[in-house]
Design goal:
Layout lengths: L2 E7 L2 E15 L4 E11 L5 H7 L10 E10 L5 E7 L5 E3 L4 E5 L3 E6 L2 H6 L7 E6 L2 E7 L4 E12 L4 E5 L2 E6 L5 H7 L4 E12 L5 H14 L2
Length: 223
Amino acid sequence: MAKFEVEQTEGMRWVRVDLDDDDVRTERGALNHMKGGLTMDVPLPSLQAWWVSLFSDESLLRPRYSGTGSVWLDSTLGGYHVMKIRRNEQWILDTKCFWASDGEVKLSVHRERFWTSYWADQGLFWYKTALSGSGQVVLSVDGPVEEVKLDNDRLVTDGPIVIARTSGIRLTVKRPARSLLSFWLSGQKRAYVYEGTGRLLLCTTPYWRQRMQRERGTAAAYV
């Protein structure tokens, strides 16, 4: 099984992957450099996956590195979260959250319901990466991650701060207030509602350098 380690210096973080006659899948374009007897190939997705890619921001072309050696992935002012998934468990990731995974982890596509996609301003089709199998997964995140468990319960958030959830939890996007008057007065445009039984991963607070970079980028866009 691959060994994942998050390294950091000067506020930058990156992932190092050590392989011993094993393989790892990564996000497209994530490689920084690699060392040792490693080979890279790109498993071609199915025709259905190619069709999905026409309507999705998710990359379905995920390079695979095999052999013995080390792989260093690109750095970021944000962070990375390493998690383990168990057999008979499926996780649904937020858009552009997948970064790397063991070769034993199966990657597929999950489509949110039509009205959820529409009210979340994601168009008519909102496709996300789904994970199953057994192994470790690395998620690209903005800050520290917190796990929340639901037992036939509900979690409401102001925005898409849930970066991953198990398949037993359903997502809907609604008005945060029941009446139109309260909706107008509240200042809250929409609420993301997660209902069911399972686990969720939340990233509520970004690292300060990551937040400053985004705020500067937003300000530059209006200049």
